[in-house]
Amino acid sequence: MKFNVSSKALYSTASAVSKIINSKNALTILNNFRLELRGDMLSIMAGDGENFLEGRLQVSDASGEGTVCVDARRLTDLLKELPDLGVSITVEPELNYAMTLEYSNGKFNFMGFNGMEFPLPEELNEDAVRYTFSAESAKLIRGIDNTVFAVGNDELRPQMMGILWDVKPDSLIFVATDTRKLVKFTDSSVQPGCEGSFILPLKSTVVFKNVFAKDQTVKVTLEEKGVKFESENYVFNSRFLKGTFPDYNRVIPQANPYELTVDRVSFQSSVRRIGAFCDAANGLVRFSIRPESLEMKASESTFNASAWESVPCQFTGEGMVIGFSAPYISEILGVINSEEVIVKLSDPSRPGVFVPAENKPDTELLMLLMPMLVTEF
After folding, report:
1. What CA–CA distance (Å, rounded) separates 203 from 64?
2. Which of 64, 112, 163, 245 has the greatest number of beta carbons closer than 10 A?
3. What span, in angstroms and rounded, lies between the C-alpha atoms of 249 and 199?
């Protein structure tokens, strides 16, 4: 088989698809791309044994059809260094799948092998499809961006090592937690018209975010063992995590009577400065909250270092001393993008609820953070 294609377009697709490949694979064949030519459409597929990503692009002057496997790293490294020009690729199955890539002043020869040896994702079983809906990729990526930092890494709780996609007829809810913090992002501009849920692993979340352009429509199909994302140029089959995600609605406090309102930028800057003086083992910052001021204090005993800072605020309670982890608060404030942040509190032993003072249209962001035990400021 033979075809012509833009080196830039081929590299863009090959580079995106390569993101699914593990650095080390139990099966050597998974270090390869599977190229398939059908008419004037070229498919590039890669996988890690459970998840598979396929990119499609149109080629010209195509002749013949078939499949071939080729070393993914070698092909990607070559395309990366080529200038933006047209290249011609020829595959000769009768010569042990010898592959040639050439252009006006260059020619590269390398060996491939039979593409039929590549393990393909399971065929779609229509009877196993639970539901299907479509959404703008930008909105799905927005949900990921707001929650991915809270994904857990404890292998004893594998169901927390991903993002929960809780699909409702009139909204799509993204939830992540590592038991110390929990994030819930609701997007009511996405209306799937069906109901269900699945946990997308962290790796698949990163691949989705990096591959799907923000100006595409993505079709989401939930099957018995996994989920399929499909756009005009890419098809991504991912297994979802097994297990039951914690009931996040039960975890979120419903009666935190006191509200702390503070400028987000000032708060974030102060926490970052104070955080440099925290004990590295726990990152503890002590907060003394008054009706009109928020004082922060941290200390590091090893080098006898300490820090204190105050920012103006509004607090509906009389006063409270509470402890939080500086790195966790910095992460939370880095996601919130409103001018002010509201922290809903009950007492120093119960979690604080962080919300933006103003949500973007059709969205609602809520973050929960467990406090750290402190006895005095």
Report:
1. 36
2. 163
3. 16
| Identity of the amino acid at 151 | V
CA separation for the pair 199, 367 (Å, rounded): 19
The model scores a pTM over 0.85: yes
By the 8 A CB rule, do 285 and 271 touch?
yes
Sequence-separated (6 or more) residues with CB below 8 Å from residue 156 = none
Structure tokens at 80: 């990366």
Structure tokens belonging to residue 160:
């927390």
- The two three-digit tokens of residue 86, written as one number: 């047209």
pLDDT for residue 120: 87
Q: Where are the beta strands (DSSP E) in 119-230?
A: 131-136, 162-168, 171-177, 181-187, 196-201, 217-222, 226-230
SS3 for 98-133, per residue?
A: EEEEEECCEEEEEECEEHHHCCCCCCCCHHHCCEEE
**CA distances (Å), 234 to each of 130, 140, 214, 230, in order?**
21, 15, 13, 6
With residue 251 as reference, give the H or E element that holds it: helix 248-251
What pLDDT digit, counting tens, does each position of 314-354 carry?
999 889 999 999 999 999 999 999 999 999 999 999 999 99
Residue 300 neighbours by CB under 8 Å, 6+ apart: 277, 278, 279, 280, 306
Q: Are 315 and 295 in contact (CB under 8 A)?
A: no
Instruction: Tell me if 143 sits within 8 A of 174, measured CB to CB.
Output: yes
208, containing H or E segment: helix 202-211
